[in-house]
Amino acid sequence: MLQLEHRSPHASPSTDYTLLSQQLEALLEDRDWLANSAQTCAFIMEAIPELNWAGFYLQRRDHVLTLGPFQGKPACNPIPFTKGVCGAAARTQQTQRIEDVHAIADHIACDAASRSELVVPIVTQGHLWGVLDLDSPRRGRFDTNDQTGIEALVSVFMARTDLD
Predict the structure, then answer these.
(1) Residues 69-113: tens digit of each pLDDT
(2) Where are the alpha helices (DSSP H) in the chain?
(3) Backbone phi and psi for residue 162, each to the nearest 5 degrees, phi listed first
(4) Which among 1, 48, 128, 152 has the fewest CB atoms less than 10 Å away?
């Protein structure tokens, strides 16, 4: 069984994403997208401090994201590509790192406690499969190190998962 070192909510801002990538790779033993999505969300919520939501939104129909596995409070569903930070990540297929979600005009507030957000698109063979969405109650929670680290975790997820 994989042993995680539990991080305090007040841990150092420097997260060891190399170690987390190795741990996630060891955790994802089955190529099943549903099991791996659920495991990835739970892993991220346990391993990364100061998050209040971690989950996947999937593209199951044109220009709309549908809620997938997640950890946190109930979430908004569906999300059109024209709305919010997740919609922007899906539409542009580029990571969105938002310091203050309340400064975004079309932000979709599923949890009023969320202050910052990081959304990484998951693109396979030129097709958007979905996005990984992370929310934090702390403004400015995500920096470039977090963005690069979470993008690396998404790469591990993609490499260990059948996304067909």
Answers:
(1) 999 999 999 999 999 999 999 999 999 999 999 888 777 878 788
(2) 17-27, 33-47, 84-92, 144-159
(3) -80, 115
(4) 1
Residue where the block lists tokens 């990984």: 132
User: Which residues contact residue 51 at a Cβ distance below 8 angstroms, ignoring those fewer than 6 apart?
Assistant: 44, 45, 72, 134, 135, 136, 141
Q: Are 85 and 104 in contact (CB under 8 A)?
A: yes
* pTM of the predicted structure, to 2 decimals: 0.91
Which residues are CB-contacts of 114 (< 8 A; sequence separation ≥ 6)? Answer: 52, 53, 101, 135, 136, 137
